[in-house]
């Protein structure tokens, strides 16, 4: 699987390189961006298209990173709450006299294929 990932990344890098070589003149053109609303008039200086492309990619990457960090924190909170619920239920079962196995500490999922 690792070799497939390397192969796909290599092909994507090659395609990006061919794109840049084929469109070098168009990417060197300069543009100026304007943002005009009633109370704000913002203008950028002249930007080359390749700079705008890289900045757009970087902004997208940062936004995706922020989303995944948020999602990771949210999942950790849910997992912490579920583990606390398991401990509470185990304590209740122990008080009622039922034998309880200690919960596994690993992150592996339990085997539920043969519980019939």
Walkthrough of the structure:
- Helices cover 62% and strands 9% of the residues.
- The chain is mainly alpha-helical.
- The chain has a domain at 22-95.
- The strands form two sheets. It has a two-stranded antiparallel ribbon. A two-stranded antiparallel ribbon has the order 2-3.
- β2 (34-36) and β3 form a beta hairpin.
- The protein is elongated, with a radius of gyration of 27 Å.
- The model has no long low-confidence stretch (mean pLDDT 85).
What secondary-structure arrangement, pairings included, does this model have?
Blueprint: H1 2-22, H2 24-27, E1 30-31, E2 34-36, E3 41-43, E4 47-48, H3 49-95
Antiparallel strand pairs: 1-4, 2-3
Placed side by side, the strands forming the largest sheet appear as: 1-4
What integer is the average pLDDT?
85
The helicity comes to 55-70%
Number of helices: 3
> Which word captures the global form?
elongated
Beta fraction of the residues? 5-15%
Oligomerization category of the chains in this entry: single chain
Main sheet? Answer: 2 strands, antiparallel
Q: Low-confidence parts lasting 5 or more residues at pLDDT below 50?
A: none
Radius of gyration: 27 Å
Q: Classify the secondary structure makeup into a structural class.
A: mainly alpha
Q: Helix and strand succession?
A: HHEEEEH
How many strands in all?
Answer: 4
- For the termini, the CA-CA separation is 35 Å
């Amino acid at each position: 699987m690792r070799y497939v990932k390397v192969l796909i990344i290599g092909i994507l890098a090659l395609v990006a390189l061919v794109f840049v070589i084929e469109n070098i003149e168009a990417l060197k053109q300069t543009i100026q961006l304007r943002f005009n609303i009633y109370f704000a008039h913002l203008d950028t200086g002249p930007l080359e298209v390749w700079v705008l492309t890289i900045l757009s990619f970087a902004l997208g990457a940062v936004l995706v990173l922020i989303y995944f960090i948020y999602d990771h924190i949210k999942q950790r909170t849910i997992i912490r709450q579920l583990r606390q619920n398991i401990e509470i239920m185990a304590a209740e079962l122990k008080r009622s006299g039922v034998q309880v196995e200690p919960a596994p500490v690993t992150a592996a999922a339990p085997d539920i294929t043969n519980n019939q």
